[in-house]
């Protein structure tokens, strides 16, 4: 899901970080006092806030309002700027702001403001910059009424209303009224309708961003007439049409239309866009070949075309003409042929993904070429790649939208933030791993799995000290890691195991938070020689300077240097060097910058400690050194140190250790934000700031090694809004003192060992997020929970809670997510009026003890996208009101006692949105409905109707499900043959119809299933809730991560195994056990080179075991027991590792695994009833299947350690 909050580093809103770290404090010096009228208007603004963020202490009627926090005045006594970003403001925006006739800049971003934009404000004729992003504003931004002034907002240059809940059509009045209007940022809202034609009048518009809305219709030609556009970003809408008119936008630098329904090809004339740097067309319906005109984009840094239907060879594009290309993503297309030689000339390429295409032959060097059919040895040329041999990073380039790595599931905003990856998995590489691989010391992830590599793991691989992920599974490697000395694993802080101090199973680091735009400061004068010298000392200490030397020269004014901002007093006020690829220590000489207010060195590769000179600075207000490699402890300042002005300290995502010293916080009298998450801090939660810093609002300590109880001293944090201490080692009872912090809006303590009950939670009436999942809480949810009127996210999963859900839960009308899975809640749900929860998006009650029927009120939740009620004893029929749930994507009702499957499927089939349906273990002994009564399920991809003991046949209506990828009908009493139409399900890749009473031959049509014939994967769709495989060893976020499987076991199929089965080369698992199959094992089965599990036991198979099965190098589970096979058992390769039971019940077999020695007299044949032979062997086999799969393909899964479904 997209985020509606200010950038954060955890799953709950963190509105004080990201952009707020830079914009928190505005220190523009006043030049005169404001008028009484303007003072009155500002006080009216303050009066409208229910939470004023502490402004009341500054904004007093008896003081000069030009001295108030966040207020700037012009020389003629007029308020020119109101800059109140990230102040924790709540309430509405006052209409009296319209009385500030000299107001030029208004920034209210990153707060919790609600309501609409006052007409008086949007009618202003002077305002140039209006930023209300990252709030909770609603209403329309449509055309202004005719009663407004003739030229409303005539001076407007920038409007940023992104990340709110605005509705209606995109506004176009500004295009006529504001001749200099340049920036319109409306992304992440709820705008709908077509793109209005009036945008064609925006003759000076440079940036148009309206992604992540509900826009629809065709891209109008009027948009292509705005020739001034440099950045066009409309991703994740429902836009259609072709790109034929795009060539008119010759000034485009960024084009992002990903995640829409754009069709057609990329026109040849697109080569006219000479300035284009980023091209995002992913996840559309585009096709055709890539035009050779792409070579005209000499400035291109990013090409993202994944998830389309492009085809043809890439050799038509001369990639060597793209010298600046850094990221190329062609994942999931239909490209063929060789990797073009010109691609190897892209020396700046840091990320390349060509996965899931049809490339063939050998290659020289690549970054991500997994899941193709490449052969040969791993070339030593790969070991000469400069960017992988050093920790250098490319110059900073931000994506318009985050992109995701599939494993781990983390989002990134720029190519430079991606880990350095070498992925050669799922190919056919042979030979040994070159010892030269130890040269690639910058590698973060190395995946050589599922190839045919042999020999020992080379010792130099232990020199890859930056490595976080290493996968060499499913090869023929020898030796063992346990023989390596402990020192071989040193300097890899994210590794775990017995050889190092980290025990596996500990919490992982939190995903990287999003870094927002930095405020542009004034550079009106040069800095002093002393300050220039201090900055050059920083540069001199860096081993990698990110190209700063071209700007940072001694003979130039340092106020003009990149990342440096000065004030009018010749003082350096800002050093903003985030994401520059800097390496080396942080210079203590930065402490000599006596006017420094903000220091941002985040997202680099800085090492060493945090200098005491910075922590003890007498000027720094905002210090952000997050996402680096800093080590050591946090400096301890003596209590005699004068008060320090630091307000924001972000040291998250480093390698810092030790305790958080209390005396340091004693002198931080102005501290507002402390983010020390994702480090290795130990000891207890610090509470000193609660006493020493009266404005202390954010304490984020998740993903550390903190221990002990929650300290009572937290009750002194009277204005604390966010407390995040999840994924630590906290224990003890939830204290009443914690519930006395009534200012809390976000309380997140998941995955600890906390005990106790929630009786006092109702005191926290300001809570928006409550996350206590994965603890040991007991008791029930109190009725007083209904007092939490603002609550949006409620996570109590994986605890020991019990009792009935209180009716008062229906009073929490802002709830978006309820996750109560894996508790012991009981009783009927009818007491809760879910109809009052109009914003509810996800409801997960998996694995509890709820009884009765599914309540009628739950069908009124029209915004519900995910509903899971599985593993409860619900009974009865589903209501006809199920038709109301138009937004439902994910529905899981498995393992209940529901009845009337026919009516259930009739109602659900009308859904146009449903992609995942679990209804197994219900409807016992009913009849599978026939095709005449079911029509729909247009987007269904996953269907489980398993273990229901249904009679009847495999229904024909299944043939009408065009997107079905996974079908599970096992554990029923279905009869008849497998229907011929099975091959028409073009996306079906996992079929389990085992444990039925099906008869006939295995049809040839089953061997024509497109997804099983190839390594292609189904179109990407994400589960709304994580699910797990049949043995609960793995959890998944997307269906396509499941293995390709064909399970026909425990039926009554007869005749021979078709030779055509050798065509299903995409199969991971094939189970034909416990049938009545006869004849020999076909040689063609040896063509299934991806096969990892093969079970042919419990049949009447004869003949010999094909020797070529030795070539199935991935095969790890094999069972041919209880047949009538004969001859020697192969004793080469992996066959020597299979248990003896894999061959038992075949008296004519001989070899060391069975009693018969080859050459001895054969025993007489034994009659076998295959149905009676399954017993415990099938159970053992399936358990082993789950265990193996959990190891063999872990790198391709989205594993969530907290949830089991």
Question: How would you characterize the overall build of this protein?
Answer:
By secondary structure, the protein is mainly beta. Strand 2 and strand 3 (79-83) form a beta hairpin. Mean pLDDT is 81; it is low at 1-31, 143-151, 364-368, 393-414, 482-491, 498-524 and 1160-1205. It has a domain at 1066-1192: Leucine-rich repeat, LRR (right-handed beta-alpha superhelix) (Alpha-Beta Horseshoe), CATH 3.80.10.10. The relative contact order is 0.04. Helix content is 7%, strand content 22%. It has 12 helices and 81 strands. The strands form 15 sheets. The protein has a 23-stranded mixed sheet, covered by helices on one side. A 13-stranded mixed sheet has the order 2-3-5-7-9-11-13-15-17-19-21-23-25, with no helix packed on it. The radius of gyration is 32 Å and the shape is globular. The chain crosses the membrane at residues 1178-1195. Keywords: Cell membrane, Glycoprotein, Leucine-rich repeat, Membrane, Receptor, Repeat, Signal, Transmembrane, Transmembrane helix.
Compact summary:
The protein is mainly β.
Record the SSE blueprint:
Layout: H1 19-23, H2 36-47, E1 49-51, E2 71-73, E3 79-83, E4 90-92, E5 105-107, E6 112-115, H3 119-122, E7 129-131, E8 136-140, E9 158-160, E10 165-167, H4 174-177, E11 183-185, E12 192-193, E13 207-209, E14 214-218, E15 231-233, E16 238-241, E17 254-256, E18 261-264, E19 278-280, E20 285-288, E21 302-304, E22 309-313, E23 327-329, E24 334-337, E25 351-353, E26 358-359, E27 375-377, H5 386-389, E28 403-405, E29 410-412, E30 421-423, E31 428-430, E32 445-447, E33 454-456, E34 469-471, E35 476-478, H6 529-540, E36 564-566, E37 572-576, E38 583-585, E39 598-600, E40 605-608, H7 612-615, E41 622-624, E42 629-632, E43 648-650, E44 655-658, H8 662-666, E45 673-675, E46 680-681, H9 688-692, E47 698-700, E48 707-708, E49 722-724, E50 729-733, E51 746-748, E52 753-755, E53 769-771, E54 793-795, E55 802-803, E56 817-819, E57 824-828, E58 842-844, E59 849-851, E60 866-868, E61 875-876, E62 890-892, E63 897-898, H10 901-909, E64 916-918, E65 942-944, E66 951-952, E67 966-968, E68 973-976, E69 990-992, E70 997-1001, ...
Parallel strand pairs: 3-5, 4-6, 5-7, 6-8, 7-9, 8-10, 9-11, 11-13, 12-14, 13-15, 14-16, 15-17, 16-18, 17-19, 18-20, 19-21, 20-22, 21-23, 22-24, 23-25, 24-26, 27-31, 30-32, 32-34, 33-35, 37-39, 38-40, 39-41, 40-42, 41-43, 42-44, 43-45, 44-46, 45-47, 47-49, 48-50, 49-51, 50-52, 51-53, 53-54, ...
Antiparallel strand pairs: 1-4, 2-3, 28-29, 36-37, 71-72
């Amino acid at each position: 899901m997209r985020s509606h909050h200010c950038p954060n580093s955890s799953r709950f809103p963190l509105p004080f970080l990201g952009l707020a770290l830079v914009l928190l404090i505005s220190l523009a010096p006043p030049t005169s006092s404001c008028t009484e009228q303007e003072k009155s208007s500002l006080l009216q603004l303050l009066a409208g806030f229910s939470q004023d963020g502490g402004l009341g202490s500054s904004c007093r009627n008896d003081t000069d309002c030009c001295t108030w926090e966040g207020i700037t005045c012009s020389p003629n006594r007029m308020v020119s700027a109101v800059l109140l970003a990230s102040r924790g403001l709540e309430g509405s925006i006052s209409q009296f702001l319209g009385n500030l006739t000299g107001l030029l800049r208004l920034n209210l971003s990153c707060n919790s403001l609600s309501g609409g934009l006052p007409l008086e404000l949007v009618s202003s004729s002077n305002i140039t910059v209006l930023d209300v992003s990252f709030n909770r504003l609603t209403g329309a931004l449509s055309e202004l009424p005719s009663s407004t002034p003739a030229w409303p907002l005539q001076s407007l240059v920038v409007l940023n209303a992104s990340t709110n809940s605005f509705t209606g059509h995109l506004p176009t009045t500004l295009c006529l009224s504001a001749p200099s209007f340049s920036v319109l940022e409306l992304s992440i809202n709820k705008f709908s309708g077509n793109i209005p034609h009036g945008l064609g009048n925006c003759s000076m518009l440079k940036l148009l961003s309206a992604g992540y809305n509900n826009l629809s219709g065709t891209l109008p030609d009027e948009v292509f007439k705005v020739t001034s556009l440099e950045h066009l970003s409309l991703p994740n809408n429902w836009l259609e049409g072709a790109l034929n008119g795009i060539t008119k936008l010759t000034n485009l630098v960024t084009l992002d239309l990903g995640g829409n329904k754009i069709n057609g090809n990329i026109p040849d004339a697109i080569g006219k866009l000479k300035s284009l740097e980023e091209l995002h067309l992913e996840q559309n319906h585009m096709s055709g070949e890539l035009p050779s005109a792409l070579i005209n984009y000499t400035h291109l840094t990013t090409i993202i075309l994944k998830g389309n239907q492009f085809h043809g060879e890439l050799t038509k594009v001369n990639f060597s003409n793209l010298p600046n290309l850094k990221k190329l993503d062609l994942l999931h297309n239909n490209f063929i042929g060789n990797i073009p030689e010109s691609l190897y000339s892209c020396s700046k390429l840091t990320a390349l993904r060509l996965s899931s295409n049809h490339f063939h032959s050998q290659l020289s060097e690549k970054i991500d070429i997994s899941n193709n059919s490449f052969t040969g040895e791993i070339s030593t040329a790969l070991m000469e790649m400069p960017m992988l041999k050093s920790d250098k990073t490319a110059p900073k380039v931000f994506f318009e939208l985050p992109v995701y790595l599939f494993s781990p599931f983390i989002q990134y905003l720029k190519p430079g933030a991606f880990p350095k990856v070498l992925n050669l998995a799922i190919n056919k590489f042979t030979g040994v791993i070159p010892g030269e691989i130890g040269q690639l010391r910058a590698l973060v992830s190395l995946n050589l799995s599922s190839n045919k590599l042999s020999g020992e793991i080379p010792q130099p691989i232990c020199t890859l000290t930056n490595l976080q992920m290493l996968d060499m599974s499913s090869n023929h490697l020898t030796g063992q890691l346990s023989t390596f000395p402990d020192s071989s694993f040193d300097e890899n802080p994210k590794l775990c195991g017995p050889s190092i101090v980290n025990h596996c199973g500990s919490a992982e680091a939190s995903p990287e938070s999003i870094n927002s735009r930095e405020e542009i400061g004034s550079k009106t004068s040069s800095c002093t020689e002393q300050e220039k010298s201090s900055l050059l000392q920083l540069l001199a200490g860096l081993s990698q300077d990110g190209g700063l030397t071209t700007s940072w020269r001694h003979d130039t004014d340092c106020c003009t240097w990149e990342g440096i901002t000065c004030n009018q007093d010749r003082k350096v006020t800002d050093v903003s060097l985030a994401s520059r690829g800097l390496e080396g220590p942080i210079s203590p000489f930065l402490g000599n910058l006596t006017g420094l207010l903000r220091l941002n060195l985040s997202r680099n590769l800085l090492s060493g400690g945090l200098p005491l000179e910075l922590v003890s600075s007498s000027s720094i207000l905002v210090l952000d050194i997050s996402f680096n490699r800093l080590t050591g402890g946090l400096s301890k300042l003596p209590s005699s140190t004068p008060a320090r002005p630091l307000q924001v300290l972000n040291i998250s995502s480093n390698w810092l250790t030790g305790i958080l010293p209390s005396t340091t916080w004693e002198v931080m009298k102005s501290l507002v934000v402390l983010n020390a998450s994702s480090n290795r801090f130990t000891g207890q939660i610090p509470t000193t700031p609660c006493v020493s810093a009266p404005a202390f609002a954010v304490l984020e300590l998740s993903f550390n090694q903190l221990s002990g109880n929650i300290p009572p001293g937290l009750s002194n944090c009277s204005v604390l809004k966010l407390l995040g201490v999840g994924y630590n080692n906290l224990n003890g009872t939830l204290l009443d003192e914690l519930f006395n912090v009534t200012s809390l809006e976000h309380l997140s303590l998941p995955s600890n060992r906390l005990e106790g009950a929630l009786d006092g939670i109702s005191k926290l009436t300001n809570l928006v997020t409550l996350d206590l999942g994965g603890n040991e809480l007991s008791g029930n949810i109190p009725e007083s929970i209904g007092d939490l009127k603002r609550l949006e996210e409620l996570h109590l999963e994986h605890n020991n809670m019990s009792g009935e859900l209180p009716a008062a839960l229906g009073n929490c009308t802002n709830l978006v997510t309820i996750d109560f899975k894996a508790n012991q809640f009981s009783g009927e749900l009818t007491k809760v009026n879910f109809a009052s929860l109009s914003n509810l998006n996800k409801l997960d009650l998996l694995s509890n003890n709820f009884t009765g029927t599914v309540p009628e009120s739950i069908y009124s939740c029209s915004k519900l996208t995910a509903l899971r009620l599985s593993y409860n004893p619900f009974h009865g029929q589903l209501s006809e009101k199920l038709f109301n749930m138009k937004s439902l994507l994910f529905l899981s009702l498995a393992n209940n006692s529901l009845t009337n499957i026919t009516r259930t499927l009739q109602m659900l089939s009308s859904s146009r949105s449903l992609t995942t349906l679990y209804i197994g273990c219900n409807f016992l002994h009913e009849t599978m409905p026939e095709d005449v009564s079911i029509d729909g399920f247009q987007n269904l991809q996953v269907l489980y109707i398993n273990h229901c003991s249904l009679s009847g046949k495999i229904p024909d209506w299944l043939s009408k499900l065009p997107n079905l990828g996974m079908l599970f009908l096992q554990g029923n009493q279905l009869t008849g043959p497998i229907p011929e139409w099975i091959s028409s399900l073009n996306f079906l890749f996992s079929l389990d119809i085992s444990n039925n009473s099906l008869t006939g031959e295995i049809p040839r049509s089953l061997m024509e299933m497109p997804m099983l014939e190839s390594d292609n994967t189904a179109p990407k769709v994400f589960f709304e809730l994580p699910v797990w495989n049949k043995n609960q060893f793995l959890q998944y976020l997307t269906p396509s991560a499941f293995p390709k499987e064909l399970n026909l076991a425990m039926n009554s199929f007869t005749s021979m195994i078709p030779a055509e089965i050798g065509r299903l080369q995409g199969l991971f698992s094939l189970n034909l056990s416990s049938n009545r199959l006869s004849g020999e094992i076909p040689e063609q089965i040896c063509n299934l080179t991806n096969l990892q599990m093969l079970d042919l036991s419990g049949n009447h198979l004869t003949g010999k075991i094909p020797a070529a099965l030795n070539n199935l190098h991935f095969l790890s589970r094999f069972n041919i027991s209880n047949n009538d096979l004969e001859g020697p058992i192969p004793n080469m390769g992996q066959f020597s590792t299979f248990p003896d039971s894999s061959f038992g019940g075949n008296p004519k077999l001989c070899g060391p695994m069975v009693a018969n020695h080859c050459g001895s007299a054969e025993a007489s044949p034994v009659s076998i009833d295959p149905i009676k032979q399954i017993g415990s062997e099938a159970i053992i086999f399936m358990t082993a299947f789950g265990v193996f799969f959990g190891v063999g393909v872990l790198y391709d899964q989205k594993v969530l350690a907290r949830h089991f479904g």
